[in-house]
Amino acid sequence: MFKVAGLNYARGRCSVLQDINFESDAPEIIGVLGENGVGKTTLMRLIAGAVMPKKGASITLDGLAGYALKSAVAFIPNLNWVRKRDTIAEVLDFYRAGYPDFNQERWNEVNKTLRLNEQDQVSALSKGMLERLIFALTVSRDAKVFMLDEPFSGVDVLTRRKLLQTLIQWVPEDATILMSTHEIAEIEPVIDRVLILKDAHIIVDQTIDDIRDNEHMTLEQYYVQRYVEDNWGIEL
Ligand SMILES: Nc1ncnc2c1ncn2[C@@H]1O[C@H](COP(=O)(O)OP(=O)(O)OP(=O)(O)O)[C@@H](O)[C@H]1O
């Protein structure tokens, strides 16, 4: 069981996340939605241990916390740590050394779709190719919690569809995946559940089946309805 409880985070005087609570029983794919700047990346950075929450928060995986939890979480927000001349092969070497749970077979399999050339320099990759690399590195670990932060925003539509369709096959069966995106319609067929963030809080934590069966709406319609008053005149 992956559990986030009493999570609060502020930047200076500005409260970014307030009283965030949710649990996940793997396997589960959770979409994390919300407007720009609402705190989706921050939530992932908090879970990854890249930033510290306010006192009183608890983030645990099967009772593990701190470093033990950190090593079971796969998250790469960017590749700022890569030196300018590094090739993908060199980044892979570094990554393998840093993460003993790196799964070479999975990398090979994922890269059949992503077609990354290991001799290419990372600094010369296009935005979309860089996103492919971040995605491949993230899912190639045998982690228990995977966090994909807008993984496909620069990836072409065909590759994106293929990645989404095959995501379930690539990640370990006992894992929870958190995936933030603005492409709501695209992820709906893939995710089990959604967390919608607004004004620093989780305003929706519901399964996709529940939204379909009880609200009789698509996820995007439900998102618009729950997010803005009068739907901002957006036709549902
Ligand atoms: N390095 C930073 N310095 C100051 N404030 C920051 C920094 N990074 C994020 N923030 C602030 O924290 C808040 C949450 O940002 P975050 O990046 O988590 O949002 P997001 O939901 O991921 O947004 P987007 O959908 O645009 O990617 C925003 O108000 C943002 O301005």
TrEMBL record:
GO terms for molecular function: ATP binding; ATP hydrolysis activity. Residues 2-224 form the ABC transporter domain. The keyword Signal does not apply. Keywords: ATP-binding, Nucleotide-binding. The keyword ATP-binding applies. Transmembrane segments: none annotated. It comes from the Bacteria. SUPFAM superfamilies: P-loop containing nucleoside triphosphate hydrolases. This is YtrB protein.
